[in-house]
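Why should sequence recovery work at all? Because a backbone constrains its sequence more than one might expect. Tight turns favour small or flexible residues, buried strands favour hydrophobic ones, and helices have their own preferences. The token representation captures these environments compactly. In the example below, the structure is given first.
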């Protein structure tokens, strides 16, 4: 997916069952190159909506420091864009 994103200059979008959000983000940052942008958009269209975009390496550092997004069992959309 990352290779296709880079080759076709397109964003890849993923939606996972809400209880698997942490596993999805872990898998994305583990599989993607450090410069690939990864966006986590939670609770879209709700007052609690959050949208955050960082490089895969920044997400990896944040997760390694124990600072995961507040998205447990919340509807979340994941996007990646390789440069």
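From this structural description, the recovered sequence reads:
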């Amino acid at each position: 997916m990352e290779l296709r994103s880079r080759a076709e200059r397109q964003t890849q979008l993923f939606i996972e069952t809400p209880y698997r959000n942490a596993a999805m983000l872990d898998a994305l940052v583990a599989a993607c190159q450090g410069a690939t942008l990864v966006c986590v958009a939670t609770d879209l269209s709700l007052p609690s909506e959050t949208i955050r975009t960082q490089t895969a390496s920044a997400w990896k550092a944040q997760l390694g420091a124990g600072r995961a997004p507040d998205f447990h069992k919340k509807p979340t959309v994941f996007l990646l864009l390789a440069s």
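A few observations help interpret the result. The beta strands are 12-15, 37-42, 50-55, 76-81.
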